[in-house]
From TrEMBL:
Pfam family, one: LRV
Superkingdom field: Bacteria
Protein name, per record: PE-PGRS family protein
InterPro entries per the UniProt record, alphabetical: ARM-like, ARM-type_fold, LRR_variant
Origin organism lineage: Bacteria, Bacillati, Actinomycetota, Actinomycetes, Kitasatosporales
Organism in which the protein naturally occurs: Streptomyces thermolilacinus SPC6
Length: 516
């Protein structure tokens, strides 16, 4: 049976130019323009990295898939999508907008106006810290819709003149949104107007800003219902701080533990709070010495999801601060340092030897200076995540030379590295395509040196991951690709195959109408 399958694979792979042309012509036999098969082709072609701009634009016009979320679109196509009349296209582009230029953001905001949807786009731009052009800030800060102006007030790069103008906006919600950015630029009369604002939402925002500089009395805190933000951000009068430090609500005490203005004695008291979360919040305060930090009996779950501490992230460009964090006994400080994009060699080397596996992983994922031996060590137990799918193997510092020594390694994961060696051969790839471990066969299936016959053979592999990867190999012969494209269970993988000829891609979209 195995010999017959391999002979069939060799036969299908050995196609002549005439057989190839006939296969592509047969792809469309008995497939009408409105066939659901064509709509499915269109949806998955949007993920094909070899599809040219005209094919991708046609897919966008058909309203299928989520193509605008791709981050590898050409600048020309991105320009076109940024001014697309369909707000859904612009919204999807904005969701992946970290790569957009200021001019592309401007085009996105200047497309046909739909205020509620524009508000969403501006809010999203503020959330991801989009870099905008001066005329874009002006357009948004002076927009006739107050919801858009309020969203614009929260843009991180909003110039001070626009922030101060919005702090004097006729709409209370806009004044409130502008307070944090405008406060330091306002003169005393403007501040007093906001502190006495008849609108509670604007007055509360002004009070929060004012009391980051001046202690907040307990009576005012209670009367104005300033909530969590006041506990976290404001300077507090002594009786209010003591009241909150003994508050029965654990969440209140945890918020207070993050307050940068808290007196040392209350910080020390919260460091011995009965609740683990409160003590952990105290343990990561930036002003603590290592001795003080070590005196806090915090509980730390090494398996829990970790987020970089904001104050550590703000110091990523400070080499001395990163040295201090890397030398800390606290895993959250070391992990935060490991997330820096660039680190001095001594800091990177220290973190590469960290006892905490998560710290070493963060270094491998995020830092351009991660040492090669660390990347190889991490590869033994980690081969990528959703947020960093190509790390550590795709890291520029990952070793490439001398990987052939792993071709016969007992670990399948290490055998996967052998084809990455510059001196590896197609014969090695063919050999690994018969490896007993599915993950090694899958690595062979993605290799561009794989022979057409072997690519066809792997389409019948017992492991689904190998079959899927083989369906995407550019060396698959036309007859095999056509067979996969006409089967609804396999067309999704075949449609993203970069070996699909561009004229065939265009014909696959012929006659397809836009999805309603």
């Amino acid at each position: 049976m195995r010999e017959r399958r391999e002979e069939a694979a060799r036969s299908e792979a050995a196609e002549t130019p005439a057989q190839r042309d006939a296969a592509w012509a047969g792809l469309f036999r008995h497939v009408a323009a409105d066939d659901v098969l064509r709509l499915a082709w269109a949806e998955w072609l949007g993920f094909n990295r070899a599809a040219p701009d005209d094919v991708l634009l046609r897919i966008v016009q058909l309203r299928v898939g989520s193509l605008p979320r791709r981050r590898d679109l050409s600048p020309a196509l991105t320009d076109t999508l940024a001014s697309h009349p369909d707000w859904r296209v612009r919204a999807e582009l904005a969701e992946a907008g970290a790569h957009l230029t200021p001019r592309q953001w401007h085009a996105l905001f200047c497309a046909p106006p739909e205020p509620r949807r524009l508000e969403f786009l501006v809010e999203w731009a503020a959330r991801i810290g989009a870099d905008l052009a001066p005329d874009t800030y002006e357009r948004l800060a002076t927009h006739p819709n107050p919801a858009v102006r309020a969203a614009a007030a929260e843009l991180p790069g909003l110039p001070a003149p626009f922030a101060t103008a919005l702090a004097d906006d006729p709409v209370p919600a806009v004044r409130a949104a502008a307070c944090p950015a405008a406060w330091q630029h306002l003169d005393p009369p403007a501040r007093r107007r906001l502190l006495d604002d008849p609108a509670p939402v604007a007055r509360r925002a002004a009070l929060l800003a004012h009391h980051e500089e001046h202690p907040l009395p307990r009576a005012l805190h209670d009367a104005e219902d300033l909530g969590e933000q006041a506990v976290r951000r404001c300077r507090l009068e002594r009786d209010l701080a003591e009241h909150l430090a003994a508050h029965p609500d654990r969440d209140v005490r945890e918020h207070l533990a993050a307050n940068p203005h808290l007196p040392p004695d209350l910080v020390a008291a919260l460091g011995h709070d009965p609740d683990d979360a409160v003590r952990l919040a105290v343990s990561v305060r930036p002003e603590l010495t290592e001795e003080q930090r070590a005196s806090v009996p915090y509980a730390f779950d090494a398996r829990a999801m970790r987020r970089t501490l904001p104050w550590v992230a703000a110091l990523h460009d400070d080499p001395d601060a990163m040295r201090r964090c890397a030398a800390s006994a606290h895993p959250l400080l070391r992990g935060g340092a490991a997330r820096a994009r660039r680190l001095p060699p001594d800091v990177a080397e220290r973190l590469a030897r960290d006892e905490d596996r998560a710290v070493r992983l963060f270094l491998a994922e995020s830092c351009d200076d991660a040492p090669a031996d660390l990347l190889l060590e991490v590869w033994r137990w980690w081969d990528g995540s959703f947020s960093h799918p190509d790390r550590p193997r795709g890291h520029p510092n990952f070793p490439r030379a001398d990987l052939l020594r792993y071709a016969d390694d007992p670990s399948p994961r290490m055998r996967r590295l052998a084809p990455d060696d510059p001196e590896s051969t197609p014969e090695l790839v063919e050999r690994l395509s018969r490896d007993p471990a599915a993950e090694v066969r899958r690595r062979a299936a993605e290799d561009p040196r794989l022979s057409p016959a072997t690519a066809v053979r792997l389409l019948d592999d017992v492991h689904e991951g190998v079959r899927v990867t083989a369906a995407r190999n550019p060396n698959l012969p036309a007859r095999a690709l056509v067979r996969l494209l006409r089967d609804r269970t396999t067309l999704s993988d075949a449609a993203v195959n970069p070996g699909l000829p561009v004229p065939v891609m265009r014909r696959m979209l012929e006659g397809v109408g836009p999805r309603r």
